């Protein structure tokens, strides 16, 4: 097994060296533009006049009416018409982190577009925490929604609002929402200080709610059937408390939050599942985020977080004795479970951030018998980006609208049904089935959408029915925005 991994890594290095010699084949700036544009296709609510994804229309305009609260706006997380706040907040945190770490590499127009994408979500999330001791965690009945194939502009399924009131627990959703507000407050600090202050002030309040009412939101019996199995908290709520506190520390520089992540490290399980990062598990991202304090600020009381971040990075190096991350034959990072590209994009994002932290502090990474410098981490990240953009066994871009060959039958209601602009007549719940079952390409191109992608064998069948592979999600795209921003400015890693 070890020899097989080593041979794969040698092939990976050979591919990288060829790319470096011949130069970049990809237009990373174009891909960056499209990765941000995708979010306009996921918008819920009243669309502005400058909406560029113009096959979309207004939707969900009555969201919140049944609880006498305006809950319009936000994003549909994937190819359905439900607003799940847990992954939406995570998406927002990563979009903001992309701007914080890589915004300086973005063309000014794309930096503005990225901030607009963040604000579309934060404006909505502010509404979900507008009432004391209450958080709205979801809008839309997913069972009824998933039984229909209809445009968001037509949806006539129940827009059930799922609510958690104190002292019932919602540490995960509230903790992630606090993280999103704190990260976004940093992203908006220079361009809109008033909005930044609002976000930060709200973040501290929402984090207090999360910390006081400890537990998973999906453990509340009154909402469990609506949030599970879609976005259940499978990995526990503790990581979101540390994650929210770490972002508040980054945003405020307050010792209160530094002490929190230091003193609660063991009780909240900071050393658990340190090789995972996604909408449900924040550990690897938490460790990279906190490592900045150690690498650049010499806060050695947080050294254990850096040790965990180092350990995670070493698992990505096949030559390392601690290696256990799998790569497909074509060089894609693979983790078991559906929608594999969510792992590839989040891990790539962390690789690039950690490389920057190491470089700024003039340090290298020790992985057993080998030393890893920032450039090596960036090469692995670049290989993932290039794979997604088309350097893979199928020669297919897994970003819709990028290159001439990309998935054309993605699992996405709005994309697969006729646009309301071209077909203004109402299409009822079950009437959309003929479009779902059609063998024709989707009529509307959801530009910039990254699909779930191939599995461990690099195989991808362009099938609307195979949602694990063909459905795009906001949390696949969000970290890719940051990665593309870096390579748009640094296309040739040497």
TrEMBL record:
<keyword id="KW-0624">Polysaccharide degradation</keyword>
<comment type="similarity">
    <text>Belongs to the glycosyl hydrolase 9 (cellulase E) family.</text>
</comment>
<dbReference type="GO" id="GO:0008810">
    <property type="term" value="F:cellulase activity"/>
</dbReference>
<keyword id="KW-0119">Carbohydrate metabolism</keyword>
<dbReference type="InterPro" id="IPR033126">
    <property type="entry name" value="Glyco_hydro_9_Asp/Glu_AS"/>
</dbReference>
<feature type="domain" description="Glycoside hydrolase family 9">
    <location>
        <begin position="28"/>
        <end position="484"/>
    </location>
</feature>
<feature type="active site">
    <location>
        <position position="462"/>
    </location>
</feature>
<keyword id="KW-0326">Glycosidase</keyword>
<dbReference type="InterPro" id="IPR008928">
    <property type="entry name" value="6-hairpin_glycosidase_sf"/>
</dbReference>
<feature type="active site">
    <location>
        <position position="471"/>
    </location>
</feature>
<keyword id="KW-0378">Hydrolase</keyword>
<dbReference type="Pfam" id="PF00759">
    <property type="entry name" value="Glyco_hydro_9"/>
</dbReference>
<feature type="active site">
    <location>
        <position position="411"/>
    </location>
</feature>
<dbReference type="InterPro" id="IPR001701">
    <property type="entry name" value="Glyco_hydro_9"/>
</dbReference>
<dbReference type="InterPro" id="IPR018221">
    <property type="entry name" value="Glyco_hydro_9_His_AS"/>
</dbReference>
<keyword id="KW-0136">Cellulose degradation</keyword>
<dbReference type="GO" id="GO:0030245">
    <property type="term" value="P:cellulose catabolic process"/>
</dbReference>
<feature type="signal peptide">
    <location>
        <begin position="1"/>
        <end position="23"/>
    </location>
</feature>
<dbReference type="InterPro" id="IPR012341">
    <property type="entry name" value="6hp_glycosidase-like_sf"/>
</dbReference>
<keyword id="KW-0732">Signal</keyword>
<protein>
    <recommendedName>
        <fullName>Endoglucanase</fullName>
        <ecNumber>3.2.1.4</ecNumber>
    </recommendedName>
</protein>
């Amino acid at each position: 097994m070890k020899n097989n991994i080593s041979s794969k890594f040698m092939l990976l290095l050979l591919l990288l060296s060829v790319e470096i010699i011949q130069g970049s084949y990809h237009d990373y700036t174009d891909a960056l533009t499209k990765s941000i544009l995708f979010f306009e296709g996921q918008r819920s609510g009243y669309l502005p006049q400058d909406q560029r994804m113009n096959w979309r229309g207004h939707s969900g305009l009555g969201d919140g009416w049944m609880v006498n609260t305006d809950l319009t706006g936000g994003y549909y997380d994937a190819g359905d018409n439900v607003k799940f706040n847990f992954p939406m907040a995570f998406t927002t945190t990563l979009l903001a982190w992309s701007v914080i770490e890589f915004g300086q590499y973005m063309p000014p127009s794309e930096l503005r577009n990225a901030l607009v994408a963040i604000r579309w979500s934060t404006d909505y999330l502010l509404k979900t925490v507008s009432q004391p001791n209450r958080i709205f965690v979801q809008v839309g009945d997913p069972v009824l929604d998933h039984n229909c194939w209809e445009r968001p502009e037509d949806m006539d399924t129940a827009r059930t609002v799922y609510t958690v009131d104190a002292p019932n627990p919602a540490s995960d959703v509230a903790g992630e929402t606090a993280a999103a507000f704190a990260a976004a407050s940093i992203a908006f600090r220079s361009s809109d200080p008033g909005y930044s202050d609002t976000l930060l002030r709200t973040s501290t309040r929402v984090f207090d709610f999360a910390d006081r009412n400890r537990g998973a939101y999906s453990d509340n019996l009154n909402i469990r059937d609506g949030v599970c199995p879609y976005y259940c908290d499978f990995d526990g709520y503790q990581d979101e408390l540390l994650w929210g506190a770490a972002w508040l520390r980054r945003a405020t520089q307050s010792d209160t939050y530094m002490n929190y992540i230091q003193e609660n490290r063991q009780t909240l399980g900071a050393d658990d599942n340190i090789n995972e990062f996604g909408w449900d598990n924040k550990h690897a991202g938490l460790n990279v985020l906190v490592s900045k304090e150690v690498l650049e600020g010499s806060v050695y009381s947080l050294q254990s977080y850096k040790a965990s971040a180092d350990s995670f990075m070493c698992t990505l190096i096949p030559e390392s004795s601690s290696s256990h991350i799998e790569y497909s034959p074509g060089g894609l990072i693979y983790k078991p479970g559906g929608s594999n590209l969510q792992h590839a994009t989040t891990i790539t994002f962390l690789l690039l951030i950690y490389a920057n932290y190491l470089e700024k502090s003039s340090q290298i990474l020790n992985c057993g018998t080998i030393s890893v410098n920032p450039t090596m981490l960036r090469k692995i990240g670049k290989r993932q980006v290039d794979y997604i953009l088309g350097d893979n066994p199928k020669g297919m871009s897994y970003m819709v609208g990028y290159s001439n060959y990309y998935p054309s039958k993605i699992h996405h209601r709005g994309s697969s049904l006729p646009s309301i602009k071209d077909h203004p007549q109402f299409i009822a719940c079950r009437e959309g089935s003929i479009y779902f079952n059609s063998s024709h390409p989707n009529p509307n191109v959801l530009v910039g959408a990254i699909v779930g992608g191939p599995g461990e064998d690099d195989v991808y069948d362009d099938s609307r029915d195979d949602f694990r592979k063909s459905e795009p999600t906001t949390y696949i795209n969000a970290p890719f925005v940051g990665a593309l921003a870096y390579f748009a400015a640094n296309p040739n890693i040497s």
